[in-house]
Amino acid sequence: MRFDYHFNGETLVSLRREGPHFVIRMRLQGCHLNKELLNCLLQAFDQVEECVPKQGVDGPCAVITTGWEELYATGIDHENILKNNRATTEMYKKLLLRLITFPLPTVAAINGNAFGEGMVLAIAHDYRTMCSDLGYLCMYEVDFLHPLTQAMIPIVKGKLSEEVYRECFWGIRPFPGDSALLAGLVHGIAPQTEVLDSARALANRETQTAQPIRNIPRSTTWKDETYKEAILALTREIFEKSKL
Fold it and tell me: Which domain of life is it from (predicted)?
């Protein structure tokens, strides 16, 4: 299976079936998340969910996201924020909601830097693996963009210890791979050339050990409980903005 999602003739997102898993690769324009890229990502997740029942999916599978070259994802395009353009922010929230409610396990293969909203995007995945020799996780962008909304806070606080949360969002500490693993920000590290393989190994472990509960996928049951507060908050924020 191969799908490419374009904007102005440029491929922003590619979707491939690689072995048992779906791999989504994103290519940022100007190194920032923008509404075009976010829309392509939403389409890719829709396509995965549509293909699963049609193809019957040969055994358990997961969705892996990764970036391009030495960059996973940075924050939302600064110009959108400065112009008070809410469209990108609202689409970003829709993507977070899609991730934390997605019926398949999700794994972020962080192939380089993940800053600001890009870091939160990675944290919203069920599992994360990161380069041991390249890139940082850092929330420095909250200093000059805007703080997390009330809907985003439960996503990160539910994954991090109080100390790590404080260091990330108050101390704006950058975490290279080894520090991120020690802090519990990621589940594994590997050299950049092997980070995608590391993500596949995480996906294999999850999909092979997680048995359904009352015929409901365990990942769905876990997400419903883990993200209950975030799901309600994101749904409320998105719905309220749509009425304006």
Answer: Eukaryota
C-alpha Rg value of the chain to the nearest Å: 17
Per-residue pLDDT at 207 exceeds 80:
yes
Rounded CA separation 88/77 (Å) = 8
Residue 2's Cβ-count burial label (10 Å; 0-12, 13-18, 19+) is exposed
Q: Which residue has better confidence, 225 or 162?
A: 162
CA nearest neighbour of 104 among 227, 235, 232, 223: 223
Beta carbons of 147 and 120 less than 8 angstroms apart: no
From the list 98, 104, 100, the residue with the least C-alpha distance to 20 is 104
Task: Give how far Cα 8 sits from Cα of 37, 72, 182, Å.
Answer: 12, 22, 42
Strand partners, 12: none
> Helices (DSSP H) in 85-175: which residue ranges?
86-101, 117-123, 153-157, 162-169
Beta-carbon count within 10 A of 185 CB = 24
H/E stretch holding 64: strand 63-66
Q: What is the pLDDT of residue 151?
A: 76
Question: Percent helix, strand, coil in the chain (nearest 5)?
Answer: 45, 20, 30
Kindly state the average pLDDT of the residues 138-162. Answer: 75
DSSP state of 192: G
Q: What is the pLDDT of residues 49-97, one digit of tens each?
A: 988 765 555 567 899 999 988 899 988 866 655 555 678 888 999 999 9
The residue ranking higher by pLDDT, 212 or 107, is 107
Indicate the residue type of 61: C
